[in-house]
Design brief:
Length: 412
């Protein structure tokens, strides 16, 4: 791109590129490790072209589905997995986990403060009608400590014999806290199990897949849920969600998705080729997204903005927050990212009241798959401090170029 190297953006972009070089190197090495883990699961399960054939009707005996779910469980270190186009979103996957395990008269404890907006609707704490709390499931929220960490002491007090579920959100979402490292998820699970061994630990894993060498199953989570149009779909999967975890619980989730006693079905009218391929490419794609996020963190920090996490901090999700400080700057940033997208580059994002969200949000989503946020996307609640959440990127080169554009419009 033609940028004057002596301009503020040009100079800082060069410094940023130098500063992040060792981190990009580490991300490449980590992607290679995770790629090997995925490859070994494909080999062990003897994935073959015949598993890509579509199935119709009930989908009885769909070998592609069986092999895909076997590969998925190996990659996640889980006993079983449910990976389906019939799970339409991450929210749906999390809802299925909660419906399968939280019964009337029991309590769901959120260990990580306020959950993601759409998860609040599932819990029935966002003012709508069909949530769990309207069905008699109690909700207890363990708020974060003053320095925005999970409060393990309060968590211990909150968990009782009545606790059916401990809900753990790995990503920070639209909140001021950091994404949870796996070690911290492990400590929450351990505390929860000490207090009540029957409490089911559910991890909302959205945006976290392949950012670390393991998934939350490896540190004791009972059920882990997410979306196929985020990290684990590698930007190739057109729709779907997954749940991975303990076999008895995954079975219960499948019966919630379909019907009790009738869960051995699930057609794949499009086949699962793109899901296998997306999972296979996911470690690489997530690496590209992380490289883009790290570049953005360093560039905008050098330009004087507050960023979260900083470029050299440990990460457990792909989200990069950048505090823009005014509505005008926020809209400029988001619109520039949209303008530099491969799809709908001519469209101007406007703030709108998105269903399931409490504030107006503005989003740049010039993506091949509608709403995919493993492709480069940026979104923000339109409220002070006007922080934008940037995530995704099929190629780091695209993210770098789009961020340079955005920086030029803000700091010209
Ligand atoms: C995206 C996301 C969800 C919801 O997933 P959808 O696929 O958008 O329904 C839930 N939790 C977190 C932390 C997320 O980032």
């Amino acid at each position: 791109m033609d940028i004057d190297e002596s301009s503020p953006v040009g100079k800082n972009a060069l410094s940023a590129a130098r500063d992040i070089a060792p981190i990009w190197h580490a991300i490449s090495a980590a992607a290679a490790r995770r790629q090997t883990r995925v490859l070994l699961a494909f080999k062990e399960c003897r994935v073959s072209t015949e598993h890509f054939a579509p199935s119709t009707g009930y989908g009885y005996g769909d070998r592609g589905r069986e092999v895909l779910e076997a590969v998925w469980s190996k990659v996640f270190g889980a006993e079983a997995a449910l990976v389906r186009p019939q799970i339409v979103s991450g929210t749906h996957a999390i809802a299925l986990c909660l419906w399968a395990t939280a019964h009337p008269g029991t309590t769901v404890v959120s260990a990580t403060g306020e959950p993601y907006e759409t998860v609040k609707s599932i819990l029935g704490i966002a003012g709508q009608e069909n949530g769990l709390s309207q069905a008699g499931v109690k909700y207890v929220q363990v708020n974060l400590t003053p320095d925005n960490k999970p409060d393990l002491r309060l968590l211990e007090e909150a968990i009782t014999r009545e606790t059916s579920v401990v809900l753990i959100q790995r990503s920070g979402g639209y909140s001021p806290r950091k994404a949870l490292p796996l070690g911290e998820i492990g400590r929450i699970v351990e505390k929860a199990k000490n207090r009540n061994p029957r409490a089911v630990c559910i991890v909302d894993n959205c945006y976290g897949e392949f950012v670390n060498d393991m998934e939350p199953n490896a540190v004791g989570a009972d059920l882990v849920a997410g979306s196929l149009i985020k990290n684990p779909g590698g930007a190739l999967v057109p729709t779907g969600g997954y749940v991975a975890g303990r076999a008895d619980l995954v079975r219960r989730v499948a019966e919630r998705l379909i019907a009790p006693g009738c869960a051995d079905v699930g057609p794949s009218p499009m086949g699962f080729r793109h899901v296998f391929q997306g999972l296979f490419t996911a470690p690489h794609t997530v690496g590209e997204a992380l490289k883009g996020a790290v570049f953005g963190a360093r560039l905008f920090e050098l330009l004087g903005l507050e960023v979260r996490p900083r470029f050299d901090e440990e990460r457990s999700d792909i989200i990069q927050a950048i505090k823009l400080g005014s509505k005008e700057k926020l809209l400029k940033f988001v619109r520039e990212v949209q303008r530099f997208s491969p799809v709908d580059s001519h469209v101007t994002p406007e703030p709108w009241q998105m269903p399931g969200y409490q504030h107006e949000v503005v989003m740049a989503a010039g993506t091949f798959v509608q709403g995919s946020s493993i492709e480069l996307s940026a979104d923000a609640p339109v409220i002070s401090p006007y922080e934008v959440y940037l995530q995704g990127g099929i190629s780091a080169a695209h993210v770098v170029a789009a961020l340079l554009r955005a920086a030029l419009t803000l700091f010209a």
